[in-house]
Every structure is written in C-alpha cells, then in structure tokens.
Amino acid sequence: MGTRLGRECLYVPSCRLGLYVALRHWCEPGGKILMSPVNDDVILFVVLAAGLRPVQAPLSASDGSIDMDAVPDSVWTGLSAVLTTNLYGNPDPARRLRERCDRLGIPLIEDAAHAIGSATDGKPVGSFGDAAVFSLSKHVGAKAGGFLALANPALRAPLEQARDALLDPARLTAELAYAVRPYAESAVRGLRLAPAAWWALRLLGLQEREEIRMPLRPAELLGALGAAPSLTAFHSWARVDMHDYRIAPGRLRLRRVRRLLARLDERLVAHRTGAERLLTTRWAPPIPAGAPVQPLFRVPLLVADRDAAVAALARHRITVGYLYDPPLDTYAGEAFTDPSPAPDGAAWFARHALPVDPLRAGPVIEILTSAGVRPARELPGG
Question: With a cut of 50, which residues of the chain have pLDDT below it?
Fold first, then answer.
C-alpha cells in the first residue's frame, strides 16, 4: 500500500482505531473538525472520543461529497481540522480541501475506508492529507484490519507506539472466530438461514442495531464526553459492528489479510466494471462529462422511494447496507455536534441514495426494473 500511495503505511486492526490514533496526534482536545453528516455513526463517536467537536459539512446532493462553496467563512475560521469521507468511493474535493487547510494552518485527514483505488486530480485518494485511514474490510473483503498512511514518514515510529498503547492483546478465541467466520457465513447463505444467523449474532452481542443508526443513549454519552479524550469511555459505541476493533492481530488474521490484499487489483477491476454498468442506468447520479469511473465500493443510485427499493432487493435476498440516514446532525442533535449550515443536500442524499454493490450489478438492475423503481428526480436547488 505504501507503493500504491507513495506514503509510509502503518497497519492497524481497524480503520476506526487508525482514525482515533490520527485524531489524537494531529488535533488538540476541544477543537472543532469539519466532517460529513452522511457517514457511519461510529465515526462520529470516534471523533467525540478524541475530544473533538464535530461540525457537519454541507454536501452535494448528487454524490454526497463535501460542498466546499457552501461552508461559510465563519465556519472555516473556527476549525482545528478537516476530515474527508469519500463516501462509497466518490472522492471529496481533496485538492481544494488541502489548499484551504494549508491556508488555515490546520491538518487534513482523509477517511478513505470506501476509497481504495479511487483517485482525484491525478492522485490517489489518501495522498492529499497529513494522514489517511483505509479499511481492509471493504474492497479487500478481509473483515478486519486497515492502515494509516502518513505524509511524513518520520511519524511512523511515534504513531506505531500510540497504536500499540491502545491495543488489547491477541486472543486465541478471537482468532478462531475470525478464521471460521467466512465458512459459517457461506453455509448460512447456502442454506438460506440468514434470519437465523441474524438472531444468533444478536444473542452473541455482535448485532446491536435495530435501525440504520445505533441507539444514541444521550445521557450516557454526556457522561462519556466528560472523560474525553478517551477511547475506553466510548468503547460501547466505537465497538458496534466490530467488537475486535482494537485487538492485536494474530497470525491467522494477518495471513488471510495478506492473501486477500494480493487480489486487490482484480477486485478493483470488478468494482469498476460493475460501477460503469450501474452508472448507465436511469437511477444513476449525474456524472460530469469526462469524469473517470471510480472502482466504487458501493454505487449510490438515486431512487424516489429508497425503502421500497430496499424491500424489492431483499425479496431476492440482496441486502442493502451502508445506509447513513438520517444525517448525523439530525441523529445526534446540537448537544453533540454543530449542525450543517446548509443541511438540505445531505438530507436529500441520505433519503434517496441506494448504495448498491457493483459486484451484483446485473441482478440489481433486473430487480429494480421489474419492480418499477422510479429514479429520484429533482435535486435540491435543481
């Protein structure tokens, strides 16, 4: 990955832990950080755990990227850092954000969890910021691990020490569970036992969401804020969907990560091919003329009735994940975040985006067509 990005890269057991390490290094507690309101709620809690105040950015309604021109000067001047999202692999305006951060003298941190292989302005996503965090659970499919890419290679040693100080020891039970999980999931799919598997995960405490967003638990969250910066105080939020997010990896895990990472180029080609097909459909978001097709992790089709489209796909056993609705400022409220100064774009995108796996492009197109799913028409202000 260092060769791909031209940067020093440090392995971390999860993208969320890598982000926490980066935020603690570059951002003083009490500062404000601009971020996207259409993002996983775990990221909001990692930002809070680092002792920072999230500021929700205006977004483009067409692709969920940060709309820099809609951020007032009064917001820019109060920031301590900027965090990109590169939602589903669509790049944020990284070059412009880098230039603005340089003028303000603040760090740019790239969340590239969805964006291995994406590029903008002739450079890979992850090569613009002071640091970038990547996930190996997405394109790579390792269901574990990530890495922290650094602009300054001299920082590798201190950040490695900071990472190690946060790690829990490797556990044999966690390694064995990780080793058998892919086979168990394949068996569940083959035997059509998905509902039973969901309940099993609930009983084991590994499935903690009833809705798209996890329960906020505001009274407990206020108490945790008093202990920030502290990952331990926010552990019950930061661990959701990934209880081993800070466990030191064992040999079984690293061996599988290396094997899957060796197939990354093949996976990126498949994602780009599927994205190209989906982006020619009637539900595709508008694409600027001449823009390259990215190897998107998910393709955000824009549909009139997102819930009906999700239900139509579910009837054919195609699950739609990575939904981020409502936006984080609506979800968390002003007690825990500064709301977006222009929230309409994010609200519209969160309501209409249907994030589709490009590797399932053919079946998805057939199902949405036969179900009569209508495209979303009017973008805000359009």
Answer: 180, 182-193, 202-205
